[in-house]
Amino acid sequence: MISKEDLEKDYIDAGEAKKILGLSGSRMSRLCTGGRFPGAFKFGSIWIIPREAVKNHTKLRPGVKRGRPSQAKTEVPAAPQKRRGRPPKAKTAAAAAKKSAASALPKKRGRPKGSRNKTKKTK
Q: Each residue of 93-102: pLDDT tens digit?
């Protein structure tokens, strides 16, 4: 069993540790829960952390994951994309002839019949 004097001498609570490290309370509890401070334990609702663990704490660079080995990236060929929707219709000779005949006619210009944007006639 640890005496109160030894506990106060060798350990600090998460509140003191967050002031020393300049972290927020939620970040401090996430670090303790994640095992970043060896020897830390929870006493009720308070984390008790060894002073040496706080002194030896190093910040990780952004984007670095602790405890995961770096995986060698290998080039994997991309899978062909699947076509969405209906499959295209099979083109027949009649459909191709109809399309070419329609493209030969001149396109109509102007407003379509029955459009609502008619100008009002004034007397």
A: 777 777 776 6
